[in-house]
Amino acid sequence: MQQGTARERGRRSEPHRAGREAAADNGRMFQPSQHDVRAFFCGTWRKQRDRLPLSPLEAQAATWIDEHPEYHTLLADEPAALAASYTGEDGRENPFLHLAMHLSILEQTGIDQPSGMRQAVQLLAARHGSLHRAHHEVMECLGRMIWDSQRSGLPPDGAAYLECVRRRATA
After folding, report:
1. Which of 25, 43, 53, 116 has a C-alpha 20 to 30 A away from that of 91?
2. Residue 37 to residue 50: CA distance in whole angstroms
3. Contacting residues for 164 by C-beta, under 8 A, at least 6 apart
């Protein structure tokens, strides 16, 4: 025999429902849509401009947004940013891809994956006297690795990616 009212029994089952909702939210964290990524960067820029508190990830993104003043106008107009199209055929760089690559490289160096990436990026930054310039060089290698993977249908080659960054760091 179940004890309690239906309402109390429902409350006991809420953790299970909350777990499903959290799992759905985690899916967005690991596979954000184009809209999610753009809204994140626009929201981060708005919060930074308004001097509102930033989450740790937003603080990291804000650092790279600051490095790219050419993106500020676009980021300030979220509806236009959400609607913009970047096909590559018009010669325009996708600012959202660019900023996301900065965050990816920051994460890769933070966890040293692939192993040796942290040292290679540090060498590259020392060579250029700028972490920002180093990131742009790494982006060339990251973009190449992704393009090669998509073209071949094979998984990304982390070893070739790291070797590309190392070559640039020691050239």
Report:
1. 43
2. 20
3. 140, 141, 144, 145
Per-residue pLDDT of the chain (171 residues; tens, 9 = 90+): 444 444 444 444 444 444 444 444 545 556 889 999 999 999 999 999 999 999 999 999 999 999 999 999 999 999 999 999 988 777 888 999 999 999 999 999 999 999 999 999 999 999 999 999 999 999 999 999 999 999 999 999 999 999 999 999 998
DSSP 31-61: S--HHHHHHHHHHHHHHHHTT----HHHHHH
pTM attached to this predicted model: 0.80
My answer on whether 114 and 67 are in the same domain is no
Q: Which domain holds residue 57?
A: 9-84
In the DSSP assignment, the letter for residue 129 is: T
Same domain assignment for residues 108 and 149: yes
Total domains in the fold of the chain: 2
CA torsion 154→156→159→163, rounded to 10°? 110
